[in-house]
Amino acid sequence: MNDLVTHAAWVLSATFALAFVYELWRATAKAGVSRHDNMKVFATQGLATYVVAGAVIATLFAGFSWAPWLALLFTAAIILVSIFYYNPKIMLERQPGAVDWIEDLVFTGGLFVAAALLAYHLADWRLTPALS
I want to staple 16 with a disulfide (CB 3.0 to 4.6 A). Which of 3, 53, 76, 98 is the partner? Predict the structure, then answer.
């Protein structure tokens, strides 16, 4: 397995672990603030996302040749959902505070980092210093 793919897998692992903890916190400590903040939504919608993310990450760690393509497509889809659905709809309904905005920025940023690493791998670009 390529170092870029390994790094992308770890970035996605950390990113989705953060999101899991955050969403669990919203479902428990912030239950009822919005219709999105309860254990039913977490169990039905949130867990499905984390299971799929875990499967995608597992394919990266397993070293399947097609896994970087799958992970890049999945990551791009989640970025689009984050920007065009989650932020304008769910985030605003949650009456966000500083923790919410920071988690959102770190989560989306992590997705962009992973996507860049995967794109570099798939384009066969190297992150090496220039030779003089």
Answer: 53
Distance CA 131, CA 89 (A): 49
Residue range of the domain that includes 39: 3-122
Q: What is the pTM of this model?
A: 0.92
The rounded distance, in Å, linking the Cα atoms of 108 and 102 is 10
The percent of residues in the chain predicted with pLDDT above 90, rounded, is: 92
Longest dimension (CA), the chain: 61
DSSP string, 8-65: HHHHHHHHHHHHHHHHHHHHHTTTTSSTT-SHHHIIIIIHHHHHHHHHHHHHHHHT-T
Tell me, yes or no, whether 131 lies in a domain.
Answer: no
Question: Other CB atoms closer than 10 Å to residue 56's CB: what's the count?
Answer: 20
Total domains in the chain come to 1
